[in-house]
Amino acid sequence: xxxxxxxxxxxxxxxxxxxxxxxxxxxxxxxxxxxxxxxxxxxxxxxxxxxxxxxxxxxxxxxxxxxxxxxxxxxxxxxxxxxxxxxxxxxxxxxxxxxxxxx
Length: 103
Description:
By secondary structure, the chain is mainly α.
């Protein structure tokens, strides 16, 4: 009898591991706004890394060739994130306009 009640209790419990994936895509304004803020923070983090890199170069912590290599990686990452941020910002704009039209 205990076994049956335990099974029933677990059957009626909420499965927290499963998320409604339809809400977590590029058609969800909330998700896209969160993604936009996240990209902004990532870009800010790259700026901080670049400042630290320049500071470490001035202090002589590593050679210029290593600095150039690291700087190139940061520039590429920054450009990639900036392009993605522009795309997401455009999607957010479209979703907001779509929401205004539907109201």
